[in-house]
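Appendix B.2, paired examples.
Example (i):
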Amino acid sequence: MAEGRVQVRVLNREDAAAYREVRLATLQSDPLAYITTAEEFMCRPLASVAERLAPGESGATLGAYAEGELLGILTLMRLDREGLEHRVEMMGVGVLPCARGQGVADALMRGALAHARTWRGVTSLHLAVMETQHAARRLYERHGFRVWGTQPDAVRRGEQVLSEHWMWRPLVMD
């Protein structure tokens, strides 16, 4: 698939079933990349998933499509607490294993940056990436994110102890 054939758009309630499939597949294929487990996500009713997909002034989930199939997802949440309104958190980034390395994640990142720019007053984007997710970290760095700190002992999966890298980028870069 050529990168130019990937379209990114904001998802809505009607996309809940497709979103659920992609989210579950990414949680199952990369369990160490996420705080939410596949088991936890499977317990959420479709109506609850649909409600979370309703775009608003402080949040949106983007989907990357090729040939009508949802291949990747990314959620943006604008902080609404006084003094933090300039920040957007990026989370839940995932691409189906069969679509990795084909420009889907890059398209999602470009779409996320463009969408964040539509929110008045936003100056920076923030995210966290698990230490095990080297490809994801490289993706974020290609799009201008830089590590500002690392939280040791951030997540435990059984006996495995994981650190989390905290990253940020200004929305407007020179």
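Example (ii):
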Amino acid sequence: MSDWIPLPHLTALTLKGDDASAFAHAQFTTAFDGDRGQQWGLSAWCNPKGKVISVMLARSRDAEVDLIAPANQLETLTARLPMYAIGRKVELLAPLPVAGCLSPPEDPTRVLGPDPSRGIRTGQALAPENPEAIARWQALDLCAGIAWLAPGRSEQFLPQALGLEERGGLSYRKGCYPGQEVIARVHYLGKAKERLVGFRLAGRVETQDGDLSDENGQRLGRILGTLTGQEATIGLAVAGAQCQPGATIVCGDTAGRLCEPAELC
């Protein structure tokens, strides 16, 4: 049996109704037209300028689409998503609790696509919170390159800058959705100017929503999320495409280095 732990920093929503899949297909960056598997995969909701409002985990099942997003994005999603559902047979159920397990789940529909060594589920009674297990989960999310967005970072980045293209959270063949033309233009006619990077800082540093700079004080990137341990602070950031792993960075008065997200664990 898998040991399930509550993940209070995440929340779940369900789109339910005959038009749930069609609605999700028309709004999000991945396909929901029947070809999508039932395991959890990355997706995103963008504004008309192609900037990501929220990074999500999503899966389809029958006449329902399940979504998992940061708990601090719940108000935005529940307020804005129904505005685009007018005329469709779909209702939004939220919030629902989220739990994860740090081993492969027995049920394949609970596999976490970006990291199949873990499982995730929604809507069931949860055990007491376990801070150590939650911290381990968050570290593995960073390592998997899951670029959860806090409200302060919403609508700032194209999905390519958040690593969604490499991790299956962005489709160029599914048809229109908000911001699709801008996003496709970057892919077919140009090159993304920003990319997702990992970073490691020496010691305990409060960095949420901060910036990474070079040794001369020039900004290199914007921090998305961090996890602070006893000896180091690790995190994800969006940096210029020219930034390479191994580069020296500074956050406040603390030095560190860039790396690929997979090198954080």
